[in-house]
Amino acid sequence: MRNIELSFIDSKRNILDELHKAFPNGSISDLGFHYESNNELFNYEIIKFFGDIHIVLFEGKLTVDTNVTIKPNAMKSVVLRFILESDITHGENDTAIGEGKENGATLFNTYTEQNIQLKKNTKIKWLAVHIPIEAWLEFAESKWDKLEEIIVNQSPWILFESMTPTFSKLIKDIFSYQKLEVGKKGLISAKAIELSTYFFVQLYKRHDDKEKFGIPDVELSKLFAIRELLSKNLDTPPDIDMLSKTFAMSPTKLRANFKKVFGMPPYQYLLAERLNESYRLLESSDRSLTDIALSLGFNDQSHFTKSFKKNFDCLPSAIRN
């Protein structure tokens, strides 16, 4: 096991020096840190936007299980992290992001310790946007008092959102710009701000001012297991009573804690995932609308079309035009 300990943008140079200790044959440049051998890749790039806003791009593949601990500090920033690969854990046992799944977007503060498990022989890819709290408050213009209340809270906290097709497309665009020789920083920064804006808009839509945020009063691992079970059974999901018995949690507590972490009750989440999956299928396959609708558990094509238009503000057929 390889262990790396970092701090949230403690200083760019300190982070790069720590990475160099872990990978002595790697190289530090103005872009960040790069290490590549016949079997391993570790590329960590830090892009400074305006003020103290930073964008971090990381991708790689390692031959040794690696644990990256990002220690908390009091720099008073929030971090948005979007995961395409690897495992993120919060606390000792609670897995937030499943290996190799496009399902992880998180918002947390720099008082929250992060333990990142990078499994050997697994592709790793994520990006993070670090925003000083003062900059975020100015950007948000006090449009949402309840979120502002948690943003300024100096206790550790974390919020989770699903990875939507919009998020995925923007992230892939950002990583594709890494190859550019001209305009790279500007395009990555612009797309990162667009991505962050979509994240906050989604978060705003899914929570109301009465909603409590942050770590629930049950193990996160149970809630992620419930979410995974729903995601794997979009067509025939278990009902709330079965989930309650399986995870030893009352239906009321299950709904409340699931909404606290993921921004919506279990079956609203289920509908959102059905629609996100239908969007991906429309883009990547030539299956009929009826086939897609029925395979994802919609009653019929009409029900699917109405739900799709309400969520994406366009008809399913428009995705293929």
TrEMBL record:
Keywords, A to Z, come to:
DNA-binding, Transcription, Transcription regulation
Can you tell me which residues the record assigns to a coiled coil? none
Q: Name one Pfam family in it.
A: HTH_18
Domain of life according to the entry: Bacteria
PROSITE patterns assigned:
HTH_ARAC_FAMILY_2
A GO molecular function term, named singly, is: sequence-specific DNA binding
* Ranges for domain HTH araC/xylS-type: 224-321
Transmembrane ranges? Answer: none
Q: Which SMART domains match?
A: HTH_ARAC
PANTHER family for this protein: REGULATORY PROTEIN PCHR (PTHR47893)
Official protein name in the record: AraC family transcriptional regulator
Q: Which organism is it from?
A: Flammeovirga yaeyamensis
